[in-house]
Design a protein that fits this description.
By secondary structure, this protein is mostly helical. It is built from eight helices and no strands. Helix 2 crosses helix 3. It is globular. This is HTH cro/C1-type domain-containing protein.
Length: about 130
């Protein structure tokens, strides 16, 4: 079994564990609601699901967050001992209460609204670096 086929089995397992149908249209819809970059096509989702391709790291990260699995496990089939949680704790520890409230409010929005807010924030950041 090759690398893409093994990735596909882990993707299918994670989807089933969360009650999703094993269909490319499901991956396409759920992924595109969460990813702030260029949307994926139905064909790309089909290739991931059928073991014909492995997504890039940034896309793999989105899949892992959507399915609430460790990205390293999703990609390689191995679990790291707490490294993702440790990074999140460090990141969270530097936040003020107001920043934490903003993040929590943002995360409570539906996925399509989070995507829209993210695009606005990126536009402001790009404008800021140009000036």
């Amino acid at each position: 079994m090759n690398e893409a086929q093994m990735f596909s089995l882990r993707l299918q397992e994670a989807m089933q564990n969360h009650g999703y149908e094993l269909r490319p249209i499901v991956i396409e819809r759920e992924f595109n609601q969460r990813y702030w970059g260029k949307s994926i096509s139905f064909q790309a989702a089909r290739r991931w699901l059928h073991g014909e391709a492995v997504p890039t790291q940034d896309r793999l990260q989105v899949l892992a967050e959507w399915l609430n699995v460790d990205p390293h496990w999703l990609r390689f089939g191995e679990k790291l001992s707490g490294s993702v949680q440790q990074q999140r704790k460090r990141w969270d520890a530097n936040m003020t209460p107001q920043e934490r409230q903003v993040v929590e409010t943002f995360m409570s929005l539906p996925a399509e609204k989070r995507k829209m807010v993210g695009e606005i924030v990126f536009a402001f950041a790009q404008a800021q670096t140009k000036s």
